[in-house]
Every structure is written in structure tokens, then in C-alpha cells.
Amino acid sequence: MQGVFRADLLERKAKIKAYNMRLLTILAVSVFVLVCLTTYATWRHFLSDLPKIASNEEIWTANRKPSLEMVDATGETVTIRGPRYGRKVSVDALPAHVLQAFLAVEDARFFEHGGVDLWSIGRAVLENLTAGQTVQGASTITQQLVKNVYLSPEQTFKRKLQEMVLAWQIDNRLTKKQILEIYLNRIYFGQNAYGIDAAAWRFFSKHPSKLTLAEAAMLAGLPKAPGRLAVDLNAAPAIERRAVVLQRMVSAGFITQAQADVTMREPVALYVTPDIPEGQMGYVIDMAQKEVESVGKQVAPDRILRLTVDSRMQAAAVQAVQALVGDGTGTGVTQAALIAMDRQGRILAIVGGRNYEESKYNRATMAKRQPGSSFKPFVYAAALEKGMTPDTIRVDKPISLGGWRPRNFNGGYSGAMSLSTALTRSTNTIAVQLASEVGIDRLILLAQRLGIDSELPRNLSISLGAGEVTLLDMTRAYATLANDGVRVDPYLIERIDTTRGTVAFQRENKAPVQVYEPLRARQMTAMLADVIAFGTGKRARLPGGREAAGKTGTSQNFRDAWFVGYTADIICGVWVGNDSSSPMNGVTGGTLPALIWEDFMAAAHEGKPLSPLPTLDDLKRPSPTTLAAFYESLADIFAAAGGQDMAALPALRKLPSPNATAPAPAPAPATNIGR
């Protein structure tokens, strides 16, 4: 008998199946959503703030504390402010036992894993569980690098997970050699030393390529606990840690047990490189630190500043100041400042006070004081620019301008004299007359063009130095006169390198800016040379007949005394006085400042040839090209007249080429320079 067809049963089965499918779908979607939410929550909690590795170069510099190493003009390190970062050392430059010491104690399977050693992790977990406490770690060198560069030292699962992820990323970006190299150059060894170069110099005073097995083992043991182990490498903890490193090297097959035993018995021979005392270089260092902030571009944290300062000259400057300026007994002088530079603006020495440890206030760059008669050269320079000459006559006589009656230092008057004589004698009345003729605005503009940045009062008293300026301003302005009217902009930083051998900043050679006519500048040099030869600056005469030009200055009531001058090589300014502006005991610019200036300049020029000051004759001398053309024409004339062919005379064929530098002029008596 054929069964009855039950459509209702089929429909019921279909509904059940559909219902089950909906349940499965809902369940699957729910599980998927749950997994996604869990994954998102996990990522958000553990990995959302994972540091990004922007570039390979960033791994060298990321999260480094700023450091300043300063190097003088001769390449000697002056000081280090901040962490001591060593120079970059290639792994190829290191002996095998140095690399093996670090690999053995930190990551024996370094070349076998992919940044995270899962086998070592499993072994460490087993041993720690067996011991009931943490007795073994499993961080690889790559993980340690990540921890030191990107992460905090906190011991959490989140930090450990991030460490592993970043280690995998770095292992995929860099070769093993690159990772090991960065690790060795960035790891902290204690005693403010970062990198194997800094550590080798710090503890053993040698390059890491010269490390012995015992020394390498000692350094390899320090990164585990640098704050504790590096305090004293002769103490038991450091010695014991060295033994652990050596035994690990034996286990790794790098050395024999016999080698390890012999090395363990070796005493620790330390040759610690001490921190460099800043001493009287402090003013230089402070100034350089401010200057690096104004470079105008972001520079690397591991900075090496190549300074223009000459340490020998700096020592001479400090000696000159301290030898003649004491506690004020007798002279009433308690402070002094000195700054020296060359005609390119390179600062060679700077002393901001008698003693940096007692006062870090830099009087050479920050203190504004009245320059007295040392400001007069700008008055005479303005007069020359207006058309006068050194031989222009003016009369030293009583004058009254707007009710002001300036007097000379000696109280007397000398009648008619040339401008050159008036400057040599530092005659006040003639300086005021010239300022009145030139005009205050014109005088101020000229002083600013030459290099005076300080604001000057708009009255005739500035012709006698009544305005307030810095020693740096005055020395820069005199440097412009010494540089044939080309403005000089002083600087202290020549270049900024990094410990990795790259250049972060290089000072560019700027196009010269002519702010004063060369002819007039040399006339001023001639007049200022007479000041030292015959006038108020006699005490500044240099030994050996070296030519120099300069000017004395004394402010009202002997509150400030100055001497600013230059040779063909160096421009130097000196100020003496008191921070309280109290009067000195009759000290003028021609006494103590001139003596300090002479002491320093004599020492600074030791070994330098006797280069003459530039003269007007140099400007009038025909160029080598003109001379060559003249002699060629002369030879043609003689040949045409049937005379001897002048081309046969070798002397005429040895004239400089048009591109050659003109020979230095022969020394001329200082009294005739520029006349």
C-alpha cells in the first residue's frame, strides 16, 4: 500500500532546518563579532600605542637624551654636557673576542632566531617553573635593543608583548650585522657611558678595537645592571659578572676552559678617563650651548660641536685676565672680560669674567657698559666717509653745543691739529665737533653698519662713548675696520657632527657685505696704529715690532676702561670695571686694559709670522694682470727698437697669474701706515 504524502511534515522539517541555520548563523556571527571585539580590545590594550619605526636611521637616534660634546679648533674635546655617547664603531673593526663576549652572555643563538628566540623562551619558562622563581631570562639582543630604544623598563606583559612585536619588525628590516652594530653602539654601560666606544674610553682609556679578552668580558657583563656593576669594576659583583661572561663563552665554544681560567685570574687594570673639568672654558661652553639653539634647524641629539676656539689662546686669555685683575686691592678693579676673533668672525677666545666658578655671567656678551673714547673711531670713520681725510685740520678749543661744554681728559686745549693727531691724543672737543658736523643719525647708522647692535642714544655725548654697548659689539665693529670694511659676524660653531660620523650642520660661507669703503678702512687702521705707536695706547705695543692698531676708552668717573685693537691676524677687545659700576682707582683704557690686551696678544701670536697691517699702498698697487700686461708691452717696445728680447729675462716670466694671490707687502713702519 502506497504511503500518504505528508506535505505538512516536509514543511515542518524545512522550518526546523531553516531555524537551525539561523541559529548557526547567529552563533557564527556572534563568535566572529566576539573574536573581532576581543582582538580589537586586545590590540587596543596591548598594541595600539606600539611605537612606529619610521626609518632605519631613527633606530640610531630615537629617544636619545640630548648630549653636547664640544671640540676645539685643534680637535681636542673641551667638555661633554649630558650623556657620554661614543663614536660609532663598526663590528668589522672589533676583535672576535669582543663580539663573542656580548653574544655569549646576552644571546648565544643570535644568528639563529628571527628576533625572538621561542626555544629559549620555552627553556626559560621550564627552568623558572622548576625553580619556583625567575632564574633565567630569554630576551634576545634584538629585544634588548627594542627595550632600550623604544620602550620603558617596566616589567609587564604588555611591554613584553610590544617588545616581541618590535623585535620581529626590526629583524625583518635590518641584517643581523646591523642589529648587533646598533646594539653595541647604543647600550648603556654605566658611568654615563653609552655605546662600546664610550665605555672603552671611560673605563680603559682605549679604543674598543684594543680591548683584551678580560676587558671585553668585563664590559659585556655591565649592561645587565650598569647602575650597580659599573660603580667599581674591582668590586666583587663586577668580578663575578666577568666570570659569568667567560664561562658562557666557554659554553658557546668561543674560548677554552683554560683560557677562561687564566683570564679570571687577571687583575682588573682600570685606566679611567675622568670627566673633563670645564674650568675657565665655561664661558665658551655656555655661549656655544646658546648658539646651537639658534642654528635654525633640528639637529641630532648626539651632537659634537666643532668650535672655533683655540684652547691655547683661551688659556692665554684667562691667564692675562687673572694675572692683572684680582680682588680690587689697589686698582679698585674686580672684573674683566676679553674676546678675540679673526677677520672671518671665528671667535678664538672669550673670557666673560675673572672667575667662571664665582660668576657665570658673561660680561663679554651680555654686559652693556659705556665705551668711552674707544667709541671715537666710529666718529672719525663717519667723518672720513663724509669727505674728510686724516690730514683735515680741526681746532681743539673750548666749545659749547646746546649748553653742553665737553672738556678734554687733561683739562687743557692744544689748538689746531689734524684728525689723525686728534685721534692719537684722544681729544674730546674735536670728536664732538666731528659728530656735530656728521650728524647723530649718520653716526649711529655707521656704527650699526660696522657691527654695533646695542641701541644708542641720539645725542652728541655718544661721540665720547656715553651710550652703552657690549664688548662683543665693539670688537666686531673694530673687526670690520680691520677687514677692509667688510662686515664681520662673529660665531663660535663651525660645524655640528654626530657620533655616527654624519654632519648635522655646516656653517655656510656667506657672501661678503661691504659696509665701509676699503680706502677709508685702511685710513682708519693707519690712524689707530698711531694711537699705539705714539698715543694713549703705548702700553699695548707688541714685542718684536709686530704692527697693531687700537684705541683706549675710559668712561666717566673711571667706571669702565677699555682697549680694543687688532693686528693683521687677530682682533681683540678688553674691558675692566666692577659689576656694581663703582669707580675704579684712576684706571684708564691705556693702563690695565692695554696691559691685558698686550699680554694676551703677545701669547696668541707666538709662532705667527710678522704680518704687517694693511696699508693704502696695497690698494694702489697694480694687479698682477696689469703688471704682466705692462711688462709685455715694454718687451714689445724694446724688441721693436732692436733691443734685447725681454722675453729672455726669466724674472719677467715669473709674474703671478691673474688668479694668483698677491704677495704680502713688505713690513712698513707703523708711523707711516696708510699715509
Q: What's the domain count?
A: 4
Radius of gyration: 38 Å
- Give the C-level CATH assignment of the largest domain: Alpha Beta
Low-pLDDT regions: 643-675
Report the major sheet: 5 strands, mixed
Name the CATH superfamily assignment of the largest domain: DD-peptidase/beta-lactamase superfamily
Query: In the CATH scheme, what's the topology name of the largest domain?
Result: Beta-lactamase
Strand order of the largest sheet: 2-1-6-11-12
Mean pLDDT: 86
Number of strands: 15
User: Which architecture of the largest domain would the CATH scheme give at its second level?
Assistant: 3-Layer(aba) Sandwich
Terminal residue distance: 147 Å
Number of helices: 23
**Class inferred from helices and paired strands:** alpha+beta
Relative strand content:
5-15%
- Helix proportion: 40-55%
Taken from the alpha-carbon principal axes, the silhouette is: elongated
